[in-house]
Amino acid sequence: MSDPTAIEAKIGVLEAEMARTQKNKATNYHLGTLKAKIAKLKSELINGPGGKSAGSKDAGRGFDVSKSGDTRIGLVGFPSVGKSTLLTSLTGTRSEAAAYEFTTLTCIPGTMKYKGARIQVLDLPGIIEGAAGGRGRGRQVISTASSCNLILIVLDAAKPVTHKKIIESELFGFGIRVNQTAPKIKIVKKDAGGLGYQEAVPQTKGMNAEVCRLICKEYKISCAEIILRQDVTTDQFIDVIEGNRSYIPCLYVFNKIDAITIEELDILDQMPNYVPISSTLKWNLDELMEEVWDRCNMIRIYTKPQGQIPDYDGPVILHAQNPSIEEFCNRLHKGIMPTFNFAWVWGKSAKHQPQRCGKEHILEDEDIVTIVKRVC
Ligand SMILES: Nc1nc2c(ncn2[C@@H]2O[C@H](COP(=O)(O)OP(=O)(O)OP(=O)(O)O)[C@@H](O)[C@H]2O)c(=O)[nH]1
Ligand SMILES: [K+]
Ligand SMILES: [Mg+2]
């Protein structure tokens, strides 16, 4: 079955059945099976029958814009919320903005420099409900969003907050999990031996051996070792089986706050991961940049050639959570490590200034590093 309308209809029937089914211990197994069936149909809708999962390279191709800079962020939202105006305000790259919907028809990249990092910002066409299922350019937009290190969901502050849910569920339908971390579940498929199910931590959200077996049955997994290292939902379990989900941080950018009242702003203010701005008036773009910086998890390391002052203008940007000196060296140049002797480190990670460190030493934001080579 590959006719999208037929798949959508089938999903509709299953979702209706789920809504009808009361949630309790007795129906838990049935709900697990239903969820797995729906997840399978949704990935078929996006990738075609037997297709690859949502995040994979060949699935629902994104716009052909090459990556540049230290990180990439994407502007996603309904038409005319002000994405293009925001791109222009942040990066200076002009992207046409106008009062009619679907002004932007392709992906427009811009670059902004912040704290020494080069951040690629992608303006994208507006999306509407049904985008993930293939409506309009939606799939291309969301596929491009899944290539970003951070997604800014741009919303019109004067429009209903329900728009936030719609955009989120479009991203969700494409396999993007915003502001979530990958569930700690290990699945090792085997050739024989049946299903092994282990709970490394107690499960309180619906998972148990039988639910696991039923979901695996839907996916025709009969031999595998499964270990749950975290308290997870059945949906998270299905996510891991489907594979290729993208776990991407996201900020909700409420634009056009110049058009709403202080009282309305106060209500919005209670939402997590939210930044109010005005793109046209350039209000609060500083806070937006700071929040973007926080979410991108970038660390700046200044290099200091021996006997010279550090290069504060061109920090080396590292993405790793706890980057070691070795990672720093490899980022600079692959040829450094073979001749590496030790490093002098100044900054937060150093116990004294400077500290003599080996390649395993973990660096922190704004450390200064001098590499000393071995004399051969
Ligand atoms: N009042 C107000 N209007 C804004 C603001 N930002 C954008 N606009 C207006 O909103 C309209 C749409 O802006 P665009 O930047 O084209 O919106 P878009 O999201 O890129 O729209 P599409 O490309 O069609 O999806 C334009 O008339 C802008 O001038 C803002 O901060 N305040
Ligand atoms: K517009
Ligand atoms: Mg636009």
Automatic annotation (TrEMBL):
Keyword field: GTP-binding, Hydrolase, Nucleotide-binding
Entry annotated with the keyword Metal-binding: no
Domain of life: Eukaryota
UniProt domain OBG-type G: residue ranges: 71-297
Pfam families: MMR_HSR1 (PF01926), MMR_HSR1_Xtn (PF16897), TGS (PF02824)
CDD domains: DRG, TGS_DRG1
PROSITE patterns named in the record: G_OBG, GTP1_OBG, TGS
Molecular function terms, GO-annotated: GTP binding; GTPase activity
Keyword GTP-binding: yes
Residue intervals of the TGS domain: 297-373
InterPro entries in the record: Beta-grasp_dom_sf, DRG, G_OBG, GTP-bd, GTP-binding_2, GTP1-OBG_CS, P-loop_NTPase, Small_GTP-bd
PANTHER family, per the entry: DEVELOPMENTALLY-REGULATED GTP-BINDING PROTEIN 2
Protein name: p-loop containing nucleoside triphosphate hydrolase protein
